Amino acid sequence: MITVSIMRQSAADSRIVSFAIEGHAKFANPGKDIVCAGVSAVSVGTVNAIEALAGVALPASMKSGWLRSEIPAGELDADSDAKTQLLLESMIVMLESIAASYGKFVVIRHLFRE
């Protein structure tokens, strides 16, 4: 199963401060697993889009079945921060779409730092 953990600042301040994606869907054999491929494409594509469109290079750690990133706190100007948050929220919508169709293989957890 793939577990997506979205960490937000707090219930009052819903800014995304980090995310982690770990595990394998095991929907199909490696190389043919459309669930893993979809989650990977959405998450890695989002990290790349944030760099290309918001000019923010997220510190991301990635290996097989694992991607984690923290959003630089207090280091972004208002425009870059807004773009980054919008792209991250878009990532969540896409991952929730995958989970809606393949919920047995993907779970999304929303957590709060405070």
Automatic annotation (TrEMBL):
GO biological process entries: proteolysis; ribosome biogenesis
Keywords, alphabetical: Hydrolase, Protease, Ribosome biogenesis, Thiol protease
CDD domains per the UniProt record, alphabetical: Prp-like (cd16332)
Key word Hydrolase present: yes
InterPro entries: Peptidase_Prp, Peptidase_Prp_sf
Domain of life: Bacteria
GO molecular function: cysteine-type peptidase activity
Family the entry assigns: Belongs to the Prp family.
PANTHER family found in the cross-reference section: HYPOTHETICAL RIBOSOME-ASSOCIATED PROTEIN (PTHR39178), RIBOSOMAL-PROCESSING CYSTEINE PROTEASE PRP (PTHR39178:SF1)
Protein name per UniProt: Ribosomal processing cysteine protease Prp
Organism, scientific name: Paenibacillus lycopersici
